[in-house]
Structure formats: structure tokens, C-alpha cells
Amino acid sequence: MSVDEIYIKANIKAVHDWPKEGVVFRDITPLLQQPKPFRMVIDALTQRYINHEIDRIAAIDSRGFLIGSVLAYNLNKPLILVRKKDKLPPPVISESYELEYGTATVEIQKGSCNKGDKVLIIDDIIATGGTMMAASTLLKSQGAEIMEAAAIIDLPDLNGSTRLQNLGIGVYSLCAFEDEN
Ligand SMILES: O=P(O)(O)OC[C@H]1O[C@H](OP(=O)(O)OP(=O)(O)O)[C@H](O)[C@@H]1O
Ligand SMILES: Nc1ncnc2[nH]cnc12
């Protein structure tokens, strides 16, 4: 593990049995409350993508907005909002999916991207990968190519990153929590 990874992980809190029994919720609030680890996250993602060919950044509602919007500003790229159901004005397209602790629907506005656009998807965490997959389905339906799906945290035990990779979507995360500790 790199020094940055150790530091980022140390600023993410494990909340056991929330929002339901058996779930270990990875809370990024401590990381956001301190400039140093938050800057580490943004700087690491900026460095990774600064020389990549990216046309747009898609950030996922709501924790993904916190990272995706700052990254879009740093990289000077247009931002696409992947929002929870009924938040965006029409015309929208929708995709439903399973979460670790429920079900959800995400939407993007029609015309959010152009055919052939290379889109980087950003969220705080990849758990089952359902949210990233739904976002990718919506973006692809508009003709986009998914350049990569990136998050602060990967939970490999929930297989989300593997499921995304099996669909041909490249995945990048800054840290992983391998078990329930
Ligand atoms: O890989 P998955 O199993 O799809 O889970 C990851 C998603 O779950 C959380 O979002 P949540 O729906 O809890 O919303 P929030 O960001 O508004 O808290 C998280 O922010 C990711 O978007
Ligand atoms: N274990 C978890 N911690 C934080 N956010 C999540 N989203 C889905 N699973 C999660």
C-alpha cells in the first residue's frame, strides 16, 4: 500500500450494521472534513486523468458529485449529472438497479453527451457495481464510450469491479477494503 492509500483509508470510517444489519458502511465524511486527505484524493485522480483523452466526466448522485465536480473543474471538462430518479427535468432516460442495501433508479438527461464521447464515470465507492453499471448503460445508450469508472473506494468482496471489468469497463480505485473490518 502506498503512503497515500494508507492515509486515505485512515480517514474513512467503518460504520457497522448501517443502514442495515450486516452492512459495513464506508463513511467518507472524515475524509471530506479535512483538507489534506480530500486534496490527496482529488490530486491523485487529477494526475491519473490529466493526460487521458476524456470528453466528459459523469458524476453519480450524490457522493460522486463531491469528487466528480471538482475533478471536472481541474480537468476543464464538461460535467454530466447522473441523478437519482425524479430530480432532473425532462427529457430523461432511466435505469434501475440493485444496491447492497436496496434498489435505486438513476437518470441522465437526453443529449448529455455526443455519440463517440469518451466519458469518465466518477463515484465515491464501488460496492456491487450496480450504480456504475446503470450509469454506464445510460451513457452508452447515448452513444458514449466509457473511458473508465473511477472511485475512491473499491469493495472487492462485493465483486462490483470484477462485474464492471467483465463488461469491458476499466476500473480504477484509490483504495480497497478487503473484508468486513
Ligand atoms: O456499487 P453499488 O452497489 O451500486 O453501490 C455504490 C453506490 O452506493 C452509494 O450510493 P447511495 O445510493 O447510497 O447514494 P448517496 O451517494 O446519495 O449516499 C454510493 O455513493 C455509490 O453510488
Ligand atoms: N458499504 C458501503 N459503504 C458506503 N457506501 C456504500 N454504497 C454501497 N455499499 C456501500
From TrEMBL:
This is Adenine phosphoribosyltransferase. Residues 37-155 form the Phosphoribosyltransferase domain. It is an enzyme of class 2 (transferase). Signal peptide: none annotated. It is found in: Cytoplasm. The keyword Cytoplasm applies. It comes from the Bacteria. Its EC number is 2.4.2.7. Catalyzes a salvage reaction resulting in the formation of AMP, that is energically less costly than de novo synthesis. Homodimer. Pathway: Purine metabolism; AMP biosynthesis via salvage pathway; AMP from adenine: step 1/1. SUPFAM superfamilies: PRTase-like. Belongs to the purine/pyrimidine phosphoribosyltransferase family. One of its GO terms (molecular function) is glycosyltransferase activity. It catalyses: AMP + diphosphate = 5-phospho-alpha-D-ribose 1-diphosphate + adenine. It comes from Litoribacillus peritrichatus. Keywords: Cytoplasm, Glycosyltransferase, Purine salvage, Transferase.
